[in-house]
Amino acid sequence: MTNQVRDPYQDFHERSLRDRDAFWTEQAALIDWQQPFEQVCDTCRPPFARWFVGGRTNLCYNAVDRHAAKRPEDRALIWVSTEVEQERVYSFAQLQREVERMAAILQAQGVGQGDRVLIYMPMIPEAAFAMLACARIGAIHSVVFGGFASVSLASRIEDASPKLIVSADAGSRGGKVVPYKHLLDEAITLAAHKPEAVLMVDRGLAPMSLVAGRDLDYAALREQHLDARVPCAWLPAEHPSYTLYTSGTTGKPKGVQRDTGGYAVALAASMQHIFCGRPGETYFSTSDIGWVVGHSYIIYGPLLAGMATLMFEGLPTRPDAGIWWQLVEKYRVTVMFSAPTAVRVLKKQDPAYLTKYDLSSLRALFLAGEPLDEPTSRWICEGLGKPVIDNYWQTETGWPILTVAHGVAPTPTRFGSPGRAMYGYDVRLLDENTGEELREPNKKGVLTIAYPLPPGCLQTVWGDDERYVKTYWSSIPGQQVYSTFDWGLRDADGYYFILGRTDDVINVAGHRLGTREIEESIASHPNVAEVAVVGVADALKGQVAMAFAVLKNPAVDALQEEGAIMKQVDQQLGAVARPARVRFVNVLPKTRSGKLLRRAIQAVCEGRDPGDLTTIEDPSALQQIRELVAN
Ligand code: AMP
After folding, report:
1. What atom in ligand 1 is closest to the CA of residue 402?
2. How far apart are CA 147 and CA 149, in angstroms?
3. Domains and CATH numbers, the chain
4. Which tens digits make up the pLDDT trace of 479-520?
5. Which end of the chain is more exposed for a tag (fewer CB within 10 A), N or C?
6. How far, in Å, from the CA of 16 to the mean position of ligand 1?
7. Looking at residue 238, what DSSP letter applies?
């Protein structure tokens, strides 16, 4: 960062590391504590770290009760479903009552502090009540994405060993009912662990039969607990608040375990410094509660900041591609959070939708979860006339590692870069072979975070400390660094660029290439809507790049278009990066959370078993690639 001009953010970041305890003590004042902490960070047992030791607090109290006390009538939860054509708005006071009812139901079933509650639900308010109710009484929630089928659900039930499961009769996607109950019953049959009770929310979407002695009807129990008052349990800061299983891992799922106090502080601080959300405003994240963004920025973050959170059940294109913007107008949304993949879906639609509604309340659109390519970023930024802010993080960290913190100081963004290292993160680029830190700008290295991780990041892998240490902290021998498994590069001004997963790297004739770079180049071709590039084994070159693209207008001569795209890559990156083939597909294989399944594509191209495909959105996508490759 030799040429970097000093700016207030740089000072802020440096202070967060140099003067760590004072910095985080200030941030900790953003939440209420029942008992103050005695030690800011206990680093006695690296790589483990304990934040705000001795302090007692409660996530639900900070997210709901403290606002309900001061602003009971203000909106807290806005639920909109374009699937079932319903909208519901809960004030902070109403949300508190619903959470207390849910908490009373859980307690009546014997759920107490430290017990696990697995939540397998669609995007309905009761899912939020259940999460907050767990936080209220100190039960540990484990939300499993509603789209998972029974085998993945069973392995998560087994790992979390929940006392109780909360679920619903069905979700709905694109107007089609997706029944849950039979998947849940099957998962419970498959899992070695059996929950004592299953609490079912009946939306009236799909028939379901309740198992006597195990299954409970939420509506009936809620009636019994209408007047319930359940106090918040004052929990030690390091009490686990939840576990969340990471996507894309093979074999046994990895339960990311988060604490209570550190998480509350980290999110409250991020709402102030990064998202700039203020009490009384509305936050709209298009994610799902089954993913980390749903935990941090549908439920906890906005509510901690005293904002209303808009929970949306529906697709971005139904009833038409203007639905998000219609909601922004209707609820005066100020901060919005989505993923590049969703924007690419909109990119295929009429851009007139972007200007159809009054978006004057909206200050910024945050995008995360995957690389944000320049054409997509430009398209949405120019279409909306609003700042688009890329942010890079992981399920493990719970909040952004790299972005820009406009709440600290106005900071220009750069296309292709999620931004700079966030306060609290001591980000280092390391040489993958020697482990040496790459201090010079524009050097590609493994993106790591030096010990200790800031508050809010994972405490450990649920039930497996050894796996936590081995997976994340052992890639550079002799160094206490957490590996993100991403390649990164930092320019002279401290802006980072993510160049793909360390495991996605390809090596063509001795040249190391990031598939991301090739994808960006191809994506900037005017007829390309989306593209995935993978490295495929090649007898001559070691590996070659193979590209699979979705065309905006497929009615073209495929060979000619392939040639034109290759020429463009040649021109932009050089012939070394030119893919061996560019094949055209209708849809790319992705997880339900929108991540490209590159490794599965690679396996299919190499004639191998693609492995665990439980997270795949559309299995036919892989089939099309299989057929293309076979011909
Ligand atoms: P997950 O834990 O499923 O959210 O996935 C985290 C991974 O997604 C990271 O390790 C990155 O590889 C990728 N990722 C997330 N956000 C970004 C971003 N803004 N830019 C590039 N890659 C990202």
Report:
1. 19
2. 6
3. 8-314+391-486 (3.40.50.12780), 509-630 (3.30.300.30)
4. 899 999 888 999 999 999 998 677 665 767 655 566 877 888
5. C
6. 23
7. T
Q: What is the pTM of this model?
A: 0.85
Taking alpha carbons only, the member of 217, 224, 213, 214 closest to residue 202 is 217
Higher pLDDT, 263 or 148: 263
Atom of ligand 1 nearest to the CA of 501: 12
Q: Is 369 in the pocket of ligand 1 (CB under 6 A)?
A: yes
Q: How far is the CA of 484 from the centre of ligand 1 (A)?
A: 9
User: Whole-angstrom Cα distance, residue 586 to residue 551?
Assistant: 8
Q: What 3-state DSSP class applies to 262?
A: helix
Ligand 1 contact, 247 CB (< 6 A) = yes
* Ligand 1 atom closest to residue 418's alpha carbon, by position in its atom list: 19
User: Does position 150 have pLDDT exceeding 70, yes or no?
Assistant: yes
What is the per-residue pLDDT across 177-216, written as a single tens digit (0 to 9) for each?
A: 999 999 999 999 999 999 999 999 999 999 999 999 999 9
* pLDDT tens digits, one per residue of 281-319: 999 999 999 989 999 999 999 999 999 999 999 999 999
What Rg do the C-alpha atoms of the chain give, in angstroms? 24
Q: Which residue has the tokens 């790992």?
A: 159
Digit-coded pLDDT (tens) for 39-68: 999 999 999 999 999 999 999 999 999 999
Cβ of residue 371 lying under 6 Å from some atom of ligand 1: yes
| C-alpha 338 to ligand 1 mean position (Å) | 13
Q: Write the residue with the smallest CA distance to atom 6 of ligand 1.
A: 394
Nearest-CA neighbor of 610 among 626, 594, 599, 621?
599
Answer for the pair 230, 104: CB distance below 8 angstroms, yes or no.
yes
- Between the CA of 37 and the centroid of ligand 1 the distance, in Å, is 33
Beta strands 140-143; 242-245: pairing state: parallel
CA 330 to centroid of ligand 1, rounded, Å: 31
Greatest extent of the chain over all pairs of C-alpha atoms, in Å: 73
Residue 576 CA: distances (Å) to CA of 368, 416, 440, 513, 528: 29, 21, 25, 9, 21
The DSSP bridge pattern shows strands 255-258 and 242-245 to be antiparallel
Please tell me the predicted confidence (pLDDT) of residue 248: 39
Q: Is the CB of 498 under 6 A from ligand 1?
A: yes
pLDDT 10s digits, 349-359: 999 999 999 99
DSSP strands (E only) in 302-435: 308-313, 333-338, 364-368, 388-391, 402-403, 420-421, 427-430
Say how many Å lie between the CA of residue 120 and the centre of ligand 1.
24
Sort strands 402-403 and 140-143 into parallel, antiparallel or unpaired.
unpaired
What is the DSSP track for 124-193? Answer: SHHHHHHHHHHHHHT-EEEE--TT--HHHHHHHHHHH--SEEEEESEEEETTEEEE-HHHHHHHHHHSSS
Q: Is the minimum distance from the CB of 20 to ligand 1 under 6 angstroms?
A: no
Ligand 1 pocket: which of 373, 390, 392 to mutate (most atoms within 8 A of CB): 392
> What's the gap in Å between 590 CA and the centre of ligand 1?
14
In the reported structure, the alpha carbon of residue 459 is separated from the centroid of ligand 1 by a whole-number distance in angstroms of: 19
CB distance 514 to 500 below 8 Å: yes
Residue 252 is predicted with a pLDDT of 63
Given a contact cutoff of 8 angstroms between Cβ atoms, the answer to whether 610 and 623 are in contact is: no
